[in-house]
Specification:
This protein is of the alpha+beta class. The protein has one domain: Phosphorylase Kinase, domain 1 (2-Layer Sandwich). The protein has 3 helices and 5 strands. Strand 4 and strand 5 form a beta hairpin.
């Protein structure tokens, strides 16, 4: 039984890359700021608040009460689908987030509208 638990813990830690952990930290801070600091980032106001992971793989830009998550390298549609599912799972029980979805451009939106 201990071996199974150990394997599951190791698998979980390996499956979440350092870049994704950093991405979750960035999106979590934006979600929190929309509850405590900002009512909205405005339509164009988010450009000065854009954050990129230290490895340059992901970018998060707030727009109003939405967060736009973009992968900064050329990837397949499946990579975006995987990221969308990961973010949906991450925010599944978070009442501050209404939805996580792909927009028409293909990037991922985190909806924090009231």
């Amino acid at each position: 039984m201990k071996k199974i638990i150990y394997f599951l813990v190791v698998a979980f830690l390996v499956s979440c890359s350092p870049s994704k952990k950093e991405l979750y930290g960035i999106t979590d801070s934006f979600v929190e700021s929309l509850q405590t600091t900002y009512d909205s980032y405005g339509i164009l106001g988010g450009e000065e608040h854009i954050k990129t992971t230290s490895d340059g793989e992901y970018q998060v830009m707030p727009v109003g009460r939405l967060l736009n998550v973009k992968i900064l390298k050329v990837v397949t549609d499946d990579v975006y689908k995987d990221l969308e599912e990961d973010l949906k799972s991450h925010y599944k029980d978070d009442k501050r987030v209404n939805d996580v979805y792909r927009n028409n451009v293909g990037t991922i939106m985190i909806d924090c509208r009231n």
